[in-house]
Amino acid sequence: MVDRKIISCIENLSNEIFYEIFDFLDGCEIYQAFSNLNDRFQTLITCSTLRLKIDLSTRPDSSLEYGSKYVVVPNKDRIIALSWPFSYDHNLGYTLFNIDSSFIRLEILTLRSIRANDLIPLLINMISLPHLFSLTINYDEDPQEISNIYQASFNLSMLKYFKLSFFAFETLLSISINVDKQLTTIKYLVIDHCCSLDELIALLSCTHQLCQLTCEQVNESHKNIVKDTLYPILSLTRISIGRCYANFNEIEIFLTKIPSQLEVLRFNSFSDVNYLDANRWERIISQYLQHLNIFEFQYNEIIGRYLQATIDYKKFEIILMKNDTNFNDDVGQNTEQVYTTISSNYNVDRNKSIRHHRSIKF
Q1: In this structure, what are the phi and psi dihedrals at residue 145, rounded to the nearest 5 degrees?
Q2: Would you say the pTM of this structure is higher than 0.85?
C-alpha cells in the first residue's frame, strides 16, 4: 500500500520536472529505470526533445551489449554525450554500432583504451559529425600512430576541446604535423603524454585559435628551435605544464614568441637551476608577457649525498649543506641522492615586478 502511494506521488510530478531529473542521469539508467513502466513514462523517455548522455565505459561487460543495442542504436539522433570503452572483447564491441553521421546531435565523445586500427578509421568517419566540439581519447597502443591521431583529429571542423592521453613509461614519441595542410578550430588542447618542445611547437603551429594549453610533460627539443618557426597565438591566455625537462634557454625562446596575451602560466621544472633566476623571469615578463597575472612554478632538483645546493633569486641566496657524520643515519645508510622540491609562487603586479613565496621540502 505504501509503495503504491509513493508511486502515485511520483507520477504527480510534471513532465518538466522529470526532464530535469533525466538531465542528471545516464541514458542507460533512464531506460533501465523507466522503460515499460507505463505509457506516460515510455512517451517521456522516447520523446525527441530528450537529449541523452551515455557512459558505457563504467558499465560491466555483461551490460554493454544491452546498452549498445537497446539504448545507443535506437537513439543515435538524441545522444549528445557518449563515452565508449574499447578495453573489452573488441570483436564483440566494435560491431555493435559505428559512430557516423547518424549521431547528428553528438557534442561530446570519449574513447577509452582504443586501438589504432579502430581509431584512425573512426576519426575519419567523425568528420561528418556536425556538432562534435569535445573529443577525449585514451590511447595505449603504437606510439608511432600519435602523429596520425593528431592529424585526423585536427581535421574535425567543429572541434573546440581535444585531449589525447597516451599511457606509456618513458616512450620516445615522434610527432610531425603537415603545417601547410592543418589548421584546426581547437581552443582547449590537453596533451596528456610526453613530447619534446619542438614537437609541441609543431602542434601549436596548427592551433591558431588556441586559448588554453595543458601539457603533461615537455622534454628537451630533438632539434634546435628556430625563432622564425614560432608564431604568436594571440588568443592563448593559459599554459600549464605538469613536468618540464626542457632547459630554460629553450623555454625562454618559446615564451618570448608564442603567448603574447598570456595571463596564466603554471609549470613544474626539473634540474636546470637557471629557472630560479628571478631577474631573468622579471625581464621576460616585463618585455614579453605584459598581460601575465598569475605565474606559478615548482622547481625539482636531484641533489648528491652531501645535499649541497645553491639557489639564487633576486636579492635572495640560500645555501644548503649537510656533511656531518650523522647524515647517513638521518636519511638512510645507502642513500645516494635526495630529491628536493622548491615551490615558488610568484605574484606579478601591474608594473611587472615580482614578489615570491617559497617552500623547500626534502
Answers
A1: -90, -5
A2: no
